[in-house]
Specification:
This protein has 558 residues and is mainly beta. It has a domain at 18-208: Beta Barrel (Lipocalin). Helix content is 3%, strand content 49%. The protein has one helix and 44 strands. Strands 26, 30, 31, 32, 33, 34 and 44 form a seven-stranded mixed beta sheet that branches. Strands 14-15-16-17-20-21 form a six-stranded antiparallel beta sheet, with no helix packed on it. The chain has a four-stranded antiparallel beta sheet with strand order 1-43-42-41, with no helix packed on it. It is globular. 45% of the residues are buried.
Amino acid sequence: MTLAPTVRRVLGDGPFAEIGEPALAVADERSRTVAVGGDLGHIQWSGSGTADSRWTGHRIGVYERNGLRCRHLVRSRYPVRSLAFHPARPLLAVGTGDYDGGYLFEGELLLIHLDSGDVVSALQYPREVLGVEWCSETAFRLVLAPCDGWENPQAHEQGHAAVVARPDWGSVGQGVISAEELAAPAEPVRRPDHSAEARRILAGLAASAGRQWSVRRRVWAVEGTEDGVVLAALDGVLAESWLPSGDLRWAVEDGEGGRQLALSSDGTSVWTNAERRFRHEGGHRERSASRLARIAVDTGQVLETLSPDVFTVLVAGDHRTILRPLDGRRRRTERLLMFDLDVPVAGPEVSRFDLFNHPFAVRRGSRPYILDGSDPEEPHRDKWVTAMDADGTLRRLFPHSWVPGEHHFGGPGVELGQSLVYAGTVHHGQGLQPGGAYVVRRSLNGSVQWQYRTDRPATALDTDGHCVYVAYNSGVLTALDAGDGSVRWHTELKVDGAPTTALSLAVTPQGHLLIGTVDGRILDARLGRDSESQASFLRSPHVEHRTSEGGDEDGLWR
């Protein structure tokens, strides 16, 4: 039996880590707490987008002024626009919302009970709440965006101010504030940016506690070395190194940050690639030059940098690394770029890449694996799992989807013996459906040994040979028996009692589990096992399991 992991240490920790990039902060002298609204960002990059389904990075954190402990952490569907503490009750009002990009201004009025942590969404219908203010203990003023922007070019500069009264706001239930109570004429409204002030407040509070504050977000990749060093790639950092003592040894900064890590065969250097998104400059849509760097593990020195003409993802296996171009929008096929430590050379042709269909980052591969579409005109259809042989040729192994009629999106994977274990989701016109996410183990001839179905997509997975460890964007971490796919354990990831979500995983040579989180931290966890799990695992084919991964009916914890 394998036991749930125990966190040994937290690397990259700091005050207010849970809320990511702050948008708004309000202090309450009466309760000696501070409320912060922030954003952890999407969990999607140019090389993979499947884990972002049903995800929201918007957070509201309530912190104690003394010690800065996170007392409550609430996930919001929409960005935080306003915060207001009740003048007498342990109650926080939160206005949230956003424009959907084409028609509606949607959002919520959240009431957070600071004694219990319970959250109430008080509006009958979704509305973007721009401002909240307590007029008294019983009266409350809201400023709401227009319902929609239909035939109203001034909609983004207007708002509707309404005062709502209740004798006891502590007893207000779900959806009880009606649209009629919010009816008010439109008037000009400012939408100020409070992020600079929020940063100043958080930096000041941290300094008063003798600590430093800075924003860390989204650890996209983690790796452990033979000598206990921890490597990570994250937002704003191409790669960084942590010593076994827990001290940061070096960090290589980058404007957007690293997304993948690939250790060299001798472990002395690591390849990493930087994210490069399109930006609008001077009326043109431009992307910065691509950057792939090989960095010395011991010193952090950039040994060499590659700048191919197109943005690429790293595909590693058998101590080889190849590059797959991502900029093939106008081309039916692209050529892989193959390199060791020299200039890349043209390799075999593969289908055009898209970030939902073709991600297939396989860990511990004896050779590189790629998802390749068989139809050049529609490369997202009829995808095959292919492997690159030693001579550089691609060989088809089996169709990516094993279920007739199901279209499967790509996801993370790992090679395990003569099989692949990989995660993905099933395409549906109305979005991810219950049971539409999976982890499957398949022999290299394509036969299914087991599958495990869930409601939320996986962000990362790895194995130690006994268990397959799978992280989900719900914040759940699951261990599946490598032999039959049965569940060994579930756990909801938390740091000091506050929930978090794993974005990357790696089992280290020492048998620890490294967990890179969406809020910029790296958890070093010890995996507990009894003597039975040290033995060879069983192989029982064709076992299917199904579970629902945490959260409420909309996949949100509050």
